[in-house]
Description:
This protein is an all-alpha fold. It has helices at 2-26, 42-175, 181-200. It has three helices and no strands. The longest helix is centred in the middle third of the chain and has 134 residues, at 42-175.
Amino acid sequence: MKNQFKILKCMSVVSTITLVSHSAFAADAGKPGLPQLDVTTWPSQIFWLIVLFAIGYVIMSRIVTPRIGTVLEERRKRLDDDLAKARESSEDAAKIRAGYEETLETARAEAAAYAKDAAVKATQSAEAANAKLSKKLATKAQAAEAKLAKARSEAMESLNAVAVDAAIAATQHLTGIKATKAQAEKTVKSLAKTMTPQESN
């Protein structure tokens, strides 16, 4: 409505200028003063002013203004459609973002669970390997102790045999009496039993 009023105002100004110019050219050049101030021409000027104003009004109201209104309406609809599309796009983007965050949170939870499970399995594997190694070392230690005991027993037997021979030789050399092997072994064993507690201390 405001635009129509402005357009009509402009049309009236243009019509007035046109009428004044036309009256100026049509005035008698021989008469002094401005022709538009000649009172005898005012009725015709007013008539043509009304005619031009009516024609301009009809043209503006029937042709120009509806077309401008149609263009503005199309533009408004286009803007509304663009705004609706923008809102739909924003909602879609929000949904996609929510889905992405949900997927990311799920992936984080799965990764944490996987890491925790892997840590538990690694701990169990380490404990099993440690137990297996301890058992293997214990077995080797037992075998080494058995070998050591066997070697010690063999060494003691050899030492007893050497001691028996030495005792027989020493007795014969010192007393001239040849002791039997059984007597020498008995003597050595009794001495060995006597020495064993002393070595332990």
